[in-house]
Design a protein that fits this description.
82% of the residues lie in helices and 0% in strands. The chain is mainly alpha-helical. Helix 6 packs antiparallel against helix 7, helix 9 runs antiparallel to helix 14 and helix 12 runs antiparallel to helix 14.
Length: 393
């Protein structure tokens, strides 16, 4: 029987800080993509494919950051990394409201993309890997529940305030708030963790940046499966409001983001507990399969109730699809140089995450329908489930 897990003291404060960081990162950026896409394309100023290209630029721009953020946190600590992330994301959000040319939108997305790994799953998992040699999956699950809170609250509020105060004012205030919150978290990481827990943090002696892991077949099985899973998730979520707005009104479409996020919170907690007794590979395979079922059901949904049920199914595994790859990599290759190992996985994950919404947008531009894009996502999830399930053997 599994022993009870207790997190207290500075460990608990670290999890709470990462929870807040996840709330800001997912609420304002990850789930925010659909809100910004809808706002930019609503009046025909920009096309869906143009903003989908901006989202692609976001994820491609994240590659340098995701490659080195784990290494920097392993060797230098999280404070300066989180601070830089907060400044860049805040400036990018403010810039979105000021952008009147497509190239300016691209710059804002690239700025946010460059900084996103510092405050997203890569940064959070690297911070927690230092403090939790045991129960890493449980701590990560708790911290990433903040992603669901951010997704449930921030996008709907953003869309509401855009309708009341306008896009420019709303993105300005949101950008400033994100920067202030992350600045405070950077101070916490600098003064609380560095002074109060230097003896507890794992010190990784290996500071070389080895590429030997790329020669391991297991690495590629895990990474490709995880990339297909995340790509399918991002491909749907980035276009969620336009997809659902074709079936219901715009405010109801925005509400479905909250449905996905709330369902993700429930699923993430259950998956975190299940990971202590069930094979991580089996959990990952089940998550990809369930996501495929949810996306397929959305393509057939005709009523608002059917849309809500479909979004709940899809959302239930959103958290697991983000949370399980770090655990898979850590279980397969250990804690030593975890940040660097997961960074190389993240390069592939973020590449797929950028290509997926672009391809969905391309399918929409070619057919004036999201059906073929959704079918592509479903097919990719079947491949991901089979690949990660077989990697267990």
């Amino acid at each position: 029987m599994a022993s009870k897990v207790k997190i207290k003291g500075l460990d608990l404060k670290t999890v709470i800080a990462c929870f807040i960081m996840a709330t800001a990162a997912w609420g304002a950026v990850f789930y925010g993509h659909s809100v910004y896409l809808d706002s930019f394309t609503r009046f025909g100023t920009w096309t869906t494919q143009q903003i989908a290209s901006a989202i692609l630029i976001f994820w491609i721009s994240s590659l340098p950051g995701t490659l080195f953020v784990g290494y920097l946190i392993d060797s230098k600590g999280p404070s300066s990394v989180v601070l830089l992330g907060g400044i860049c994301v805040g400036l990018g959000l403010v810039g979105l409201g000021q952008a009147d040319k497509l190239w300016k939108i691209f710059i804002c997305y690239s700025l946010m993309g460059f900084a996103y790994p510092a405050i997203g799953a890569a940064g959070i998992s690297a911070i927690l890997a230092q403090r939790f040699p045991k129960n890493f999956g449980f701590a990560l699950g708790l911290a990433l529940t903040g992603a669901s809170l951010g997704g449930a609250v921030i996008p709907v509020c953003t869309l509401f305030f855009i309708g009341v105060y306008g896009f420019e004012t709303t993105t300005f205030v949101l950008g400033v708030l994100v920067s202030v919150i992350l600045f405070c978290l950077a101070l916490f990481f600098k003064y609380q963790i560095s002074q109060g827990s230097s003896k507890r943090i794992l010190k990784f002696k290996d500071k070389s940046f080895s590429l030997n892991i790329l020669r391991t077949p297991l690495f590629w099985k895990i990474t490709i499966a995880a990339a297909l899973g995340l790509g399918g998730q991002v491909g749907f979520l980035a276009h969620q409001i336009p997809i659902v707005a074709g079936k219901v009104d715009e405010l109801s479409a925005a509400f479905t983001i909250s449905v996905v996020a709330i369902s993700a919170a429930i699923g993430r907690i259950l998956i975190a507990f299940a990971s202590r007794s069930i094979s991580i590979n089996q959990l990952a395979a089940a998550s990809y399969f369930v996501q495929g079922v949810g996306v397929a059901s959305i393509s057939f949904a005709e009523t608002f109730s059917m849309v809500i049920i479909s979004c709940s199914i899809t959302g239930f595994v959103v958290g697991g699809i983000v949370m399980l790859p770090p655990i898979l990599i850590r279980n397969a290759f250990g804690s030593l140089s975890y940040g660097k190992n997961y960074a190389m996985t993240n390069v592939v994950l973020y590449t797929f995450a950028g290509m997926s919404p672009w391809l969905v947008g391309l399918a929409y531009a070619s057919t004036d329908s999201y059906v073929f894009g959704l079918y592509g996502i479903v097919f990719s999830q079947i491949i991901a489930a089979l690949l990660i399930f077989k990697s267990a053997t």
